[in-house]
Every structure is written in structure tokens, then in C-alpha cells.
User: Fold this.
Amino acid sequence: MSEELSGGLALDAMGGDLGVAESVEGLKLALTSVPDEKLKDPILVVGRETELLPALESVGLKDDPRIRVVHAEDVIGMDEKPMQAIKKKGKSSMLIALNLVKEGQAKAILSCGNTGALMGAGTIKIRPLDGVERPALATIIPGKEKFTVLIDSGANPDPNPIHFVHNAVLGANFAKIVLGVENPRIGLLTIGTEEGKGGEKIQQAHELLKSVGTAIGYEGLVEGYHLFDGDVEVIVCDGFVGNAVLKSCESLFKVISYYLKKELKKSPVRQVGALLAKGAFKGMKDHFNPDEYGSAPFLGLKAPVLKAHGGSDRYAIAGGIKIALNVIEHDLTAHILEDITKVNELLAKQG
Amino acid sequence: MSEELSGGLALDAMGGDLGVAESVEGLKLALTSVPDEKLKDPILVVGRETELLPALESVGLKDDPRIRVVHAEDVIGMDEKPMQAIKKKGKSSMLIALNLVKEGQAKAILSCGNTGALMGAGTIKIRPLDGVERPALATIIPGKEKFTVLIDSGANPDPNPIHFVHNAVLGANFAKIVLGVENPRIGLLTIGTEEGKGGEKIQQAHELLKSVGTAIGYEGLVEGYHLFDGDVEVIVCDGFVGNAVLKSCESLFKVISYYLKKELKKSPVRQVGALLAKGAFKGMKDHFNPDEYGSAPFLGLKAPVLKAHGGSDRYAIAGGIKIALNVIEHDLTAHILEDITKVNELLAKQG
Assistant:
């Protein structure tokens, strides 16, 4: 690794389900639409040179001044056990990309590789921000008209009440930059808004959030019924609930699509109808699978660590790159640190 | 109340969002399709006589020998706080119907009223079965081709590991009768099937379930991704997760329908397409909103307590009544008691 290497985003080009070529196509798409002023520093593209260089060449990016190639001879597979992979695969694209961030040679990382490995190695190498005990995974979900940030979508299955407050701060800062909302409204996910419902931990988190509410924009409890209504811009929950909810909703969406297709094939008349209404189905699919929001940040570390879906195609990867560049440009980490410090001081005063 | 009153199902005809008339229409529908041998005992219809009698008269059920009217002068509203309502509204249709079960004058109750009040008063009046610490709410969810029982969908947000085992037994016995599956397969919902994922409590529950696995049909961990795939007939989870997942999926379904309608209206061609494909949309809606499964049982009490959705229409209420009659006919409670006793003995032997 060259001493004077200095970049903006470190892109782990390996480890996605669709391979290096798709990552490089995504990079090409992103570079086509991102204005130069957002690219003050080159993107460090990390991967096995024997695969990466031909892929870059084939899309005309091999000698592009906006990128630098960093060789990594190994890859972490999707099915590898995270902790074992972290120990054994120091020469993998993911770990080398994380090292670039750790050493200050890059400002953020985007990977579509193994989530557990990225969260584990991210925490070990980049370290949590001062004042944040447990980082959290945020996911952007589509709503009726707008988008919402759900946090935590799977990092910390068993948070304590104060972690919910931190999640609120992390999610709100991400929403500000990515959804472009000045004062995001925050809701705490529960299972009934009556007094005492949802269990002790949620009640404690609710009280803490209320106590710092004006500082962070806390609106109160929200129920699953309103998850996709867009009444708030940030929904806070524990990592178990967030993950179960998101995956179940993905499962439902798949089954609905499957079932609708089956129903639409049942008669020639329906088939004609389906053909005429094709654009509507595509519009719906695009809305609920928004590639422009193709990455989930692992928030609360000393630099942004962003995760794209393992199955990301070029459009999702391009979307993920744009989010990463946005987050670098607006210095998400500095804003989070400021707000976390403020909230921790408020909580300390209350005792 | 007459001393010699003796019935099968106690139907709380009040408290639903659509009122007494809709409940009575549901009753009429159910009576039309249920064979007489399933109706050994009359259905005790509980409600305010001034509203109930005219409603029954208008559908020709007033003097039907298959029903008896039990007067209740009060109703518990949907928005009332459960514990207050239970204390103050002893003369409500829900509490009178529960008393009929408690006194042995009815064998089960179906209500579409206030869920919290029904679970609270059900637990107080009917009492948990011997060996069951915490009753659980089960919900039937549609899948790709078949249906699945999710338990717990909201009764116990903070179960201990043994409660998960009990939920498995409760859910499996309900699935046997209602889905007609002889040996239901059981899965435990988690957020990643790797070793150690999902938190300590889920791991402990997983170990306990494995230890009694052959006795109850435990298949192992399942992820949200597979919730609607129908790989298992019973999905076990805690009441917080189950409730959040179900409500979020309802929210997603609503938003998808809303969005699809909007897309289909965007051009005249799409509108024609939508018209031709109308049957497919109806087919899908019916599949994902199955009225035949219009009730969720609160399982683990000494008699079946069934909850229909607050917004149930006549078809959902008729479906709920049929499930209730089925559960009475097959003596769900006796089967649960037998299996719970067996499983508790197995667990006790293991120490």
C-alpha cells in the first residue's frame, strides 16, 4: 500500500453476490452522475487485481483519475462465520478497505459483503465514537409518499434503554443528510401506545427519550401499523425487532408479488390486463425497492461504514456509492459526535 | 341469567367496530354453513337486548333454536384502558360472556372487542391451564400456498425461555385443529441462523426446544425472510416481536395496495388493464385477508378465548365462529393440557 495513498471512499468491490463486474458497473453509473465537486478525493476500489483490472478496463475506468485500485488477494464469503473470517482473512478486500479507513487513507467504506464480518471488523478496527456504547445498523424503508430510517435493523438485539436514545441520535443525523429533512421526527416502535404496554425496557427508553425529546425531535411511541405511513422520519427499535420486521416485510413483498403474478396468469383476459398495466407494476416495484437508497449504514463508529445488500445490482451499488459520498461530504460523523455528546450531557445532568 | 342455561360458544356480539348488526350477520352466515352436528349446544349471543333483538329479528334468527340471547347492558369500548374497563364494566357483554365460560355454561368465547380487556379478563376469570405460566395470542398468517400459525402475536412481550416452549405446544395444537395438519412443524423466529445470533434468550429457548424437539415437532430456527414461505406450520416468537411483525406487515400490505391503486390510475391504458385484471386483485386480497381465519385465539387458558379483529366484517365474524366451533368440537384445551404436561415432565427430567 502506497504511503501517500489518500482517498475519499473505500469501495470493497468483492464479496457481493453478483461479483466484481457488477460492482464496477455500479461504480461507473455513480461516477457518471456524481458531480466532480463531490469527488474531492478519489474512490479507492479494493479487490483482486486479476479480476478488478479487466472489469475496470471493460467499462473504461482503468485509468480514470477519480479512482485508485488497491489490491486485495482474498475475499470473505457470504456464508463464512464472521469472527473466523475476521481472524483469518486479513488480506480480504473488506479488511483491507477497513484498514484504509482506520489509517486515515479513506474517509468511509462501502461493502456489499458479509454483514456480520463488516459489523464485527468495523467495530474492531474503526472503533465506536466516544459516547456511543453500541453502534447500530440503519435501513431506509419506503413509505406511502416518503422514506423513513429504521434503526436498529440488526446490530444489537438486546440494547439497554440508553442505546435507544443513541439510536435516535444516529438515525436522525443520517436522515438529515440522506432524506434531506431538516428536523427529523423520531418515533419509538412499540406494540401498543397504552401506558405500560410493550414491556419495561421500552417504557424506560420512552422516558429517557422524552427527557431529551426537545433536543432531538422525539415524537413518542409508534406502532407497527404506522411503520410505512411516513408519520415520522426515524423509527427507533432494538436490533432483533428491526431485523425481524424488515425481513418479514421483505418476505411478504416477495409472496405478494408471487401471488399476484399467479393470479394474473389465471385467464387470458387477466393476462391482457396485466400487460396493459405493466408500467404500474414496475412503478410499484421501483418504489418499494429503491436503488437510490442502496445502502444501510452501520452508525456510531469513528468513520462511516456502509453496507449494501449482498444481492445488490449495479443500480443499488451506484445508489450506495452516492449515499456514501453524501455522508462524507456532510461529515456525518462530526454531527453525530456533537449530538451524542450533547445528549449524554443532558442524560448525565438528570442522573 | 337462567340457572339451566347451557351452551357451546358464548359470542360477544357487541364491541366490534362495525356494531351489533354486523356481528349478527356474521352469526347468520356461520349458521347457514355449519352442519347441525357441530352445534350440539346453542350459541349464547351476549349483548344489549334493545339492539340485539331487533338485529336478530331482521335476519330471522330471533327464535332460532340454535341460539340463546343473554342480555348485557354495557359494552367495553375499543379505546378504554383494559384494567379500568375490567374493574368497572362487570355488566359488559365481554365480561358476561366470560362469566358464562367461567361458570361452565359455555365452552368458549369469541369477541371482537378490546383485545387488552379480553386477554386481561380472560386470564383473571378463566385462569391459565395447569403448567402454563403465560397464555399467548396466536394468529393465522397467509403464506405462498398454505397458512401458518404465528404465536405469540402480542400477549407476552417479555417471555422467558420456557414460555417459548409452551408457545410451541399451544400453537401446534391449534394448527392441528384449524389448519388440519397432523404433525405441524415448528420454527423459532430469530434474526440469523448463525451460532450465537439473536441474543441469549433466543439461544436458550432454542436449546430447550431442541431438547423436547422430537416430542413436539421442533424444526429449528427460522428467519423473517421465510415468514410467509410456509416452510413450517408454527412460528414461535415473543409477543413484542410477533406483534411488531404482524402490524408492520399489515401496514406494508395497506401501503402496497394504496400505491398500486395510485399507479394503476396514472394513465387510461393502465386503467383498462386494471379493469381487465380486477379478478386477480380480488383473488390476492382475499388470499391475504382470509376471512375463514377470522379469529386469533388467546391460548393456554382453561377454556378457549378467541379474539376476532376489531374491524371484522360479517365474513370474518362467520370465520371466527367456525373456528371457535371447531376448537370446541375437537376439545383443544384437553389436547393442550396433555401436551403441556408431557413437555413439562420432559423439561423437569432434564433439570
